[in-house]
Amino acid sequence: MANLTDEKLVEVKSINKWFGDLQALDDVSLDVQSGKVMVIIGPSGSGKSTLLRCINYLETPTNGQVWFNGERLTSDQRELNRHRAEIGMVFQSFNLYAHLTILENITLALKVVKKIKQKDAESIAIEQLKKVGIADKADKLPSQISGGQQQRAAIARALAMRPKLMLFDEPTSALDPEMIKEVLDVMMMLAKEGITMIIVTHEMGFARAAADEVIFMDNGRIVEKNTPDGLFNQPTSDRTKLFLSQILHK
Amino acid sequence: MAFEDSLSAAQKVSLQQSRRQRLRTRLATFPWWLVLILLLIVGTLLLITNSPTYNEAFVTIRSGMIVTLYITLISYAISLLIGLFTGLGRVSSSILSQNIATFYVELMRGIPMLVLIFFIALVMVPGVVNFLALLGAKLIELGLTTIGNPLAGLSNRSISMSVRAVIALSLTYGAYSAEIFRAGIQSVAKGQMEAARSQGMSHGQAMRNVVLPQAIRNVLPAIGNDFISMLKDSSLVSILAVRDITQIARLYAGHSFRYPEAYTTLSVMYLTMTLLLSMLVKLLERRLRNNG
Ligand SMILES: Nc1ncnc2c1ncn2[C@@H]1O[C@H](COP(=O)(O)OP(=O)(O)O)[C@@H](O)[C@H]1O
Ligand SMILES: [Mg+2]
């Protein structure tokens, strides 16, 4: 706990993940320091989601280690639940609880996991909804608001837990173009606040502006790792170059 | 009229045609079957009010209504509980729970309900009672009289046939509703469970707070229809001589030889109840659809 700034908040040490005889992750290592933003890019099927899901153990790595906040993650459910409460996750398809209002979406885990009283949970929820700019939607069901608003609500839900780390898995890929910006703006704000984030995205402009480090993945491996300027302007690997040219010409 | 006057002859013809068409679809979609069923019910009602023999049959059979209703309600409530837990077992990650739950479901579904009712009431319940009594006796020998005495005092006569009927119906319907709950749980998108787990909820907390509320909502109509089936199948307990409306109708018909009176009245009583209930289920279904 001594010096948070150069402490490694996340350390992934040579993890492999096999689904049957398909290898989704091949000897992947990375670390993220507190306050830093890491962006992961790569073609579809390259293992980006799997990597992200191994970091909060939604998938268990076949072998290798994941360390979070100085502790090694194991399959011990109690410990995992404690760690996950400190790792916010934002999904491509929002995954808001469909039967609950936006407000209840946020208060549920505060009450159930953090044992916060209803009233306090509600004021935390309102505060977070204001922060992402949808306090007026508190009483709506997820199905009653737009995709961009749903994703902002999902971000608010994650933030309300006061996470040490935020994971984003293609948060704007399911959105109509006109809604992408409102979500990226919220994420940019979080980056400026110094919230530690690992983000899978195809938004290269955002990556350039927000990331401290960009990782390019292909075939379950980390092919290249660099600063955004370095990776986008002088990619060293041919596969990175090919991918960047494809994505920039879309 | 003024509007129609201003139309050309050709337009008038086509207007008439479209009217005729609308009438035809209306006639085609009108629930004629419901009218027929209502006629049956009203006709029987008229018989009951006007014919002394029908009236006698109705008044006699009506006295079994309480038994029919409480057996249906209690068995239904218990079967929902059994079904919920068995359904959870079916989707559980524990191989043991999975197999126990599947064993139970397949066992119940593979045997005709009539046979199950005989088996549970006349073989299983006595078997369990004898075992418990034996256990009680052993416990008394060991000096544990507080638990031993009530157990040893158990005899098959102390378990009435209507209790056995409830046990039998609950167990058979538990297996059916387990399948409904399983389908309901599986109908909830995987991302819902994942989001809950990613926030640090345990599997149980996520199930209770996120998955089950949605699953149950999705299966409410199916569960409602199960109640209707249970009401009808409760008539099977008459073979255990439980005095529900079916048993009383059988007894009445047997004594009086008024078979048409007894069985027409009985049939229409079931029909009325199930018709009302299925309208209720449809209403519920529509409300759920509009709210979600
Ligand atoms: N639960 C799973 N079961 C089997 N295969 C999976 C599973 N999840 C992902 N995969 C496979 O692993 C590979 C990597 O997937 P993923 O991590 O989702 O890639 P990305 O997010 O980069 O598109 C793909 O080939 C995918 O089909
Ligand atoms: Mg993915």
From TrEMBL, chain A:
Keywords: Amino-acid transport, ATP-binding, Cell membrane, Membrane, Nucleotide-binding, Transport. It comes from the Bacteria. Its main location: membrane. GO terms for molecular function: ABC-type amino acid transporter activity; ATP binding; ATP hydrolysis activity. SMART domains: AAA (SM00382). It is found in: Cell membrane. Signal peptide: none annotated. Pfam families: ABC_tran (PF00005). Residues 10-244 form the ABC transporter domain. Belongs to the ABC transporter superfamily. This is Polar amino acid transport system ATP-binding protein/general L-amino acid transport system ATP-binding protein/putative glutamine transport system ATP-binding protein.
Automatic annotation (TrEMBL), chain B:
Pfam families: BPD_transp_1. Keywords: Amino-acid transport, Cell membrane, Membrane, Transmembrane, Transmembrane helix, Transport. One of its GO terms (cellular component) is ATP-binding cassette (ABC) transporter complex. Residues 65-281 form the ABC transmembrane type-1 domain. The chain crosses the membrane at residues 27-48, 68-89, 110-135, 262-284. Signal peptide: none annotated. InterPro entries: AA_ABC_transptr_permease_3TM, ArtM/GltK/GlnP/TcyL/YhdX-like, MetI-like, MetI-like_sf. It is a multi-pass membrane protein. It comes from the Bacteria. The keyword RNA-binding does not apply. It is found in: Cell membrane. Belongs to the binding-protein-dependent transport system permease family. HisMQ subfamily. This is Amino acid ABC transporter membrane protein (PAAT family). The lineage of its organism: Bacteria, Bacillati, Chloroflexota, Anaerolineae, Anaerolineales.
